[in-house]
Structure formats: C-alpha cells, structure tokens
Amino acid sequence: MEAWRLLPTGLFSPAENMALDEAVLIAHSEGLVPPTVRFYGWNPATVSIGYFQKQAEIDFPVLRAKGLGFVRRPTGGRAVLHDREVTYSIVVSEAYPNMPKSVNESYRVLSMGLVEGFRNLGLQASMVSLATEEEKQKYASLGSSACFDSPSWYELVVEGRKVTGSAQTRQRGAILQHGSILLDLDEDLLFSVLYFSSDKLRERLKAGFREKAVSIKQLTGREISFEVAEAAFRTGFEKGLGIELVPGELTERERHLLEELVRTKYGAPEWNEKR
C-alpha cells in the first residue's frame, strides 16, 4: 500500500486551519511532502463560508455575540458551522495513480474513506449517483446559505441523509478536499447567524435543512467522542483509499507557509471580507 502522511490532530483557530490546509497543498505541489490526511477541530467554534459566497449572507452582529469565529475557505460551497464535528482534509496530486481528472469523479474516489469511516461506526453509508433530476432534487438546495444543501454528481448519504459536507479545490497541480463530519448538529445556532429577509423564511429553510442534514448523534442516539470518530475515519481512509497512514509532522516549509498565510490571507479582512 502507498504510504500517506497523517498529521497530528488538534484544535486550531479559523485562520490557522485554512492556512494549514493550503500550506500542505503548496508543500505537496513542490514535492516536499507526501499525500497528506489531517483530522482537526476548531477553537473557537467557527462559521466558514465558501470562496465565492457573499459575506452579506452572514449576520455578523449575531455571530460576534455568540462568540463564533469566521473565515473564508479556499474551496467553494456555502456556510458551515464548525462546532461539534471532526473536520478532515486530504491533499494529493492530480497526477496520483488512478486519480480521476474530473472534480466529481475524484470526489467520489476520495470520499470512499468517509464511507468506510461511517461503516466503522456501524452506520450504513454509500455514495449515491445523482444521475436523474428526481435524485438531484432530493438533495437540492432550498435556497439557504447553509452548506449540506448543494449536491454534486455524487452524494455521500448515511441512513438516507447527509452527515458530511465536503468541498474541493485544485491548485498548483494538487487537490485539496476538506469537509465536516457532524458529531452533533445545532441547526438553531447555524441558522441564527445566517441572514434572512424574514423570520418566516428562516424557519421554512431550517425545516427543509433538517430533512436533509443529520448528525452522527441523531443517527445513533449516542455521543461519539472526537477521538472515537477520528480513529474510525483514520482506518476508514486507509481501507477506502487503499493506503497506509503514517504519523508525521509539519516541515519547516509548511510552518513558514502557515504563519505567512495566517498573516497575509486567512487572518486578514482583505480575504475574509472580499465579497
């Protein structure tokens, strides 16, 4: 099996998390580090928005009052509340053997690690092909700013509902895919920090969101710790991707990039408030 690097788990600030994902992508594109997987958390709990999303969709006075962090991701998609979850990231070359060229097909391949991780927790997970309009509508957006609403050509479904949201970007010949694995879900908190033209619209979209998105706790009826979930997905990624995850550390190049990207990009208003 191919050996990939597993970076240590930890809690990081919003800017550090996004900067670290990009730092690994750059270092891998330069041939300095192997394909890399990371599982991490957020301190404080944070709302992230997609690269193309308008910051006007976020109610910042409410966000600040609730003590939440904020960051713009380098990937697309919509708003995500990073709170009671395990966040994963994968960095691998576009030229990696048998890696599909298209975003949707590579998403399907890389997400097999997620499928196996959920199965390790005793949940029925599968990749569903959204080949028909009927299937697309089942998981389609209701128009809210929240993630977990927007399907690609494939959807990772657990017990018939979404329990993870992922996004992907390609830069410098490398792929970065990251996403949220929901241990628990506070829909009220998420929708309280999204801006809506009326409370009636907020409640309608929240109700639709609840029908599509679900957490591991809601599915299992029990608390799953970060450590238990991380272990399940670590072995799930090994099986799903046919790799061996070897614990490693950040290189000096990555540490330098991390500090630079926090200072000049993910920690800067010019990036986070650009739209």
TrEMBL record:
SUPFAM superfamilies associated with the record: Class II aaRS and biotin synthetases
Transmembrane portions of the chain: none
Position of the signal peptide: none
Keyword annotations: Ligase
InterPro entries: aa-tRNA-synth_II/BPL/LPL, BPL_LPL_catalytic, Octanoyltrans_LipM/LipL
Top-level taxon: Bacteria
Ranges for domain BPL/LPL catalytic: 31-245
Protein name in the entry: Biotin/lipoate A/B protein ligase family protein
Organism in which the protein naturally occurs: Effusibacillus consociatus
Record flagged with keyword Transcription regulation: no
